[in-house]
Specification:
The protein has 463 residues and is mostly helical. The chain has a single domain, classed as Up-down Bundle (Growth Hormone, Chain: A), CATH 1.20.1250.20.
Length: 463
């Protein structure tokens, strides 16, 4: 009898561990479902900017690159609204909960994307076409600003300290998966329709399909709840939070961490949009690949990228956030001198290898970022802080990267200046992350306690 009792007692931790892991996987699925939906829509716009919008929504000058530059300028507009959305969603997400604000952002992004697919072009309504596109892009960017921080925290705050890098990287993997779906939709349409049909109505179908993607994401997110650590922090800070905006506290007490978070994004963000968005234009204008070929190559690279992100997240749990990130940031400075010459060969395998290499390097800076940021800010302002860092930096980084790259290509007729642009981004991020403290394995409760001691707000300590 005693032996049986002891055996049952020994089995209990294993059962609890399995239950906790199953619950965590459900949270990861919920975070990823919405992230995939929103990035499907956001990158669908980016891909359409390179393939469609320059031809349909702007007055034609006779030079194809002028329309692309105009489309990429409009593409950057969406990034301008993201920090405001991040602050608004972050503020209320820190007060009301991560889950509810994520639901709202998902629905808004879905509606605006569907409406983009309904817009008439320049030939039909003139300058009203780009104006309406800008308006929808701003609303979409505002809602999108609240997505990343909430999705990351939904997972990070449920994760065990020693594996946070791995689990928190899965919502990051929703980025290539969403881009994969967008690429697949456009690839299927461009391959089955003539160029005239694709430009006339085919591209719109991919935007309308966002309704299905959003519905699935919304349903999955209804099945999870906020983490216990957030609910505890919410109760402790309710009275004080009503008197002080979270962003004020973040900028007052966590300036160093904010600077690290902002600077860290430059290498990752500029490299990503150079490889994923600008490369579509480069392969079309310089290498003379057709749309279906380009999208097929992108599809293969996005597929591999999906697996690389959690791998790098796992590696950051083993060796640390900073070593993985800094290695990727340094390699960012070399990619342009290697990747573009590989594309110039015109060989499909070398082109896909160049894109995959760029995304592999980017995953080294992107995967650890979520855990690093979550471990730098206390729970009661974490949504606001992460959204601020993640959404402000792209205004000066990823939003301008395709536009700057196309402009440099037009001016110098060479990829070399673009490669030096990546070197500058690399140097900035290396400097920023070099100032950060290693956070691998750190308890979020310890982060809250340290913040309480620093600010003198003893009421924020854990009981």
């Amino acid at each position: 009898m005693t032996t049986t009792t002891n055996a049952s007692a020994q089995d209990l931790p294993s059962h609890e561990t399995r239950t906790a892991t199953a619950g965590l996987k459900r949270v990861v699925a919920a975070a990823m479902a919405g992230t995939v939906a929103e990035w499907y829509e956001f990158f669908l716009y980016g891909t359409a900017s390179a393939l469609v919008f320059g031809k349909l929504f702007f007055q034609q000058t006779g030079n194809a690159i002028d329309g692309i530059i105009a489309a990429f300028a409009l593409y950057a507009v969406g990034f301008l609204a993201r920090p405001l959305g991040g602050l608004v969603f972050g503020h209320f997400g820190d007060k009301l909960g991560r889950k509810h604000l994520l639901q709202i952002s998902l629905v808004i992004v879905g509606i605006t994307t569907f409406l983009m697919g309904c817009l008439p072009g320049f030939a039909s309504i003139g300058y009203a076409a780009p104006i309406l596109l800008v308006l929808l892009r701003l609303i979409q960017g505002f809602a999108f600003g609240g997505e990343w921080g909430g999705a990351i925290l939904l997972v990070s705050e449920h994760s065990p300290d020693d594996r946070r890098g791995f689990w928190a990287s899965w919502p990051q993997a929703g980025v290539p998966l969403g881009n994969l779906l967008a690429t697949l939709a456009l690839l299927a349409l461009s391959a089955t329709l003539s160029e005239e049909e694709f430009l006339a109505w085919g591209w719109r179908v991919a935007f309308w399909l966002s309704v299905v993607v959003v519905a699935i994401g919304y349903w999955v997110r209804t099945r999870v709840d906020d983490a216990p650590i957030f609910k505890q922090a919410q109760a402790r800070h309710q009275a004080r939070a009503a008197r002080q905006l979270g962003v004020v506290e973040v900028l007052k007490h966590h300036r160093r961490a904010v600077l690290v978070g902002l600077g860290a994004r430059f290498a990752e963000n500029i490299l990503y949009y150079t490889v994923v968005t600008f490369s579509i234009t480069y392969l079309g204008l310089v290498v003379h690949k057709d749309t279906s070929q380009i999208l097929l190559l992108m599809f293969g690279a996005h597929f591999l990228h999906f697996f690389l992100i959690p791998l790098m997240g796992h590696l950051s749990d083993k060796v640390g956030r900073k070593p993985v990130y800094l290695t990727g940031a340094v390699l960012t400075g070399f990619w342009g001198f290697v990747g573009f010459p590989m594309m110039d060969t015109g060989n499909d395998w070398l082109i896909m290898a160049a894109i995959t290499l760029g995304l592999a390097i980017q995953s080294m800076t992107y995967a650890p970022y979520s855990a690093l940021m979550a471990e730098m800010f206390p729970t009661h302002v974490r949504y606001t802080a992460l959204s601020l860092c993640y959404q402000v930096a792209p205004i000066f980084a990823g939003s301008l990267a395709p536009l700057i790259a196309v402009s440099l290509l037009k001016q110098y007729q060479s990829s070399t200046p673009i490669a030096w642009y990546l070197v500058a981004a690399s140097a900035l991020s290396v400097l920023a992350v070099g100032l950060a403290r290693e956070t691998r394995g750190k308890s979020l409760h310890a982060v809250d306690a340290e913040a309480a001691a620093k600010t003198g707000l003893q009421g924020t300590r854990n009981p």
